[in-house]
Design brief:
Length: 430
């Protein structure tokens, strides 16, 4: 599958040829990650950090933008990560994986180049091996470091075999091909894929959907930059072509809500996937009627597409959607339950509060709450919860408190996801 790349330099999104020549510069990182996240993982790379253009804290001019992007998708981050502290910080801020480049290598006492096993073992203990990606970028078949400005004496395949012990995947960039749109070094990619058993991501020069598909069949994912920004590789086409159509011409699609509730399972062919991406409404292939059908086209209960993710075998797809009404033909919210409405959750409560303020119903208590009053109620309910006697009272008072906290969050423009992200950040800092 394709991993979309957002490279940052000087506070802008850029694309460089061979890592040096500026070819493209733009300032729509938020819009880009929103689009890229529909199709797969996103790599955010701080090129200034890779080049050592940092302040004493390790930050660059790109840091505020990078931090903002970390919670907006399935994001991996790279560029100048040279310490365990920095890696842990980025993971706590939302990075799913960290990409380690130059810091993976050091000079041996005899002047040779070797893996920095001590650093990598400490890193794995701190963030987990599954969160570590090691770059094995190459120039003339040798590992490139320091923002691709130098090479070390380690051949690519040998370096990859050493690195695999400390990470869950390798990122291979053919530096000579980077940004040139002339295809990657297929022979090197094949050699690398045959030498290691972990996940391999290929970058540098890939310029067509056919090449993306070919590398997928080889067992490699592809990280794309220039090919996306120039339109040479449409993400929709790459996603569809990388699915495992050898098993079947119909692929199961599991639809789930943003809160994680499974809603339904259907089947899609190539045309159905394309229509889902084109329209933004989840579309299937009807096996009984042998026609395309967009969920909701009769009932009006559409499934608004947020993102799709293929599983590890590329033969099943998870679609995250926003349901507009009951999903099941019986009227239930989900095909796996009998309730007419979504299961209670903090997100559902928050959504109801938002509706009350946007379109107040006659007699709506929620719509009367201003900032001062809701804070008073939180103080009252917190005291009542502390004084609650017995399980029943605790449940009752906790529900009241969560309601008023939800109102305050809405008024302050804070979501429950923001709160969970902060709890997640604190957990990962430990």
């Amino acid at each position: 599958m394709v991993i979309s790349s957002i490279d940052l330099k000087g506070g802008h999104v850029v694309q460089l040829k061979n890592g040096r020549e500026l070819v493209l510069e733009r300032d729509d990182a938020d819009a880009l990650i929103a689009e890229f996240d529909r199709y797969g993982e996103v790599a955010v790379i701080d090129l200034d950090a890779a080049l050592g253009n940092t302040n004493p804290k390790g930050d660059t001019v790109n840091t505020p933008l990078l931090k903002r992007l970390l919670r907006k998708g399935n994001v991996r981050v790279g560029g100048g990560i040279r310490s365990v502290r920095r890696a842990r910080e980025l993971v706590s801020l939302g990075a799913e994986k960290v990409i380690i480049g130059s810091a993976a290598w050091k000079k041996s006492p005899d002047g040779g180049d070797v893996m920095d096993a001590e650093f990598l073992e400490e890193l794995a203990a701190a963030v987990g091996r599954q969160r570590i990606i090691i770059s094995v970028d190459a120039v003339d078949g040798k590992i490139a470091v320091k923002g691709w400005t130098e090479t070390i004496s380690v051949p690519l395949v040998e370096g990859a075999r050493q690195a695999e012990r400390y990470c869950s995947e390798l990122l291979f960039t053919c530096v000579e091909k980077e940004g040139c749109m002339g295809g990657t070094d297929r022979a090197l990619a094949e050699s690398l894929r045959g030498a290691v058993s972990c996940r391999v991501v290929v970058a540098g020069g890939v310029a067509s959907v056919a090449e993306v598909e070919s590398l997928e069949r080889l067992g490699c994912d592809v990280q794309l930059g220039m090919a996306l920004y120039t339109g040479a590789v449409p993400l929709k086409d790459a996603f569809v072509r990388c699915l495992n159509w050898q098993k079947s011409e119909l692929i199961p699609v599991v639809a789930q809500s943003a809160a994680g509730q499974v809603l339904m399972v259907g089947y899609a062919n190539r045309e159905a996937f394309e229509k889902s991406f084109d329209t933004g409404w989840l579309t299937f292939w009807s096996r009984t009627r042998n026609v395309l059908w967009t969920k909701g086209e009769t009932s009006g209960h559409f499934l608004e597409l947020i993102r799709m993710r293929a599983d590890c075998d590329r033969d099943t797809v998870l679609a995250t959607v926003v349901p507009h009404g009951g999903v099941c033909h019986t009227g239930s919210f989900t095909c796996f339950g009998s309730e007419a409405e979504e299961a209670s959750s903090l997100e559902r409560l928050y959504g109801t509060i938002a509706e009350r303020f946007a379109d107040p119903r006659p007699g709506s208590y929620t719509a009367t709450l201003d900032g001062a009053r809701v804070r008073e109620k939180i103080e009252e309910e917190a005291e009542e919860l502390c004084e609650a006697d017995g399980r029943g009272e605790v449940v009752w008072e906790a529900a009241d408190l969560l309601y008023f906290v939800s109102v305050l969050l809405y008024k302050e423009g804070v979501s429950w996801k923001d709160v969970r992200d902060e709890l997640d950040r604190r957990h990962k800092e430990k």
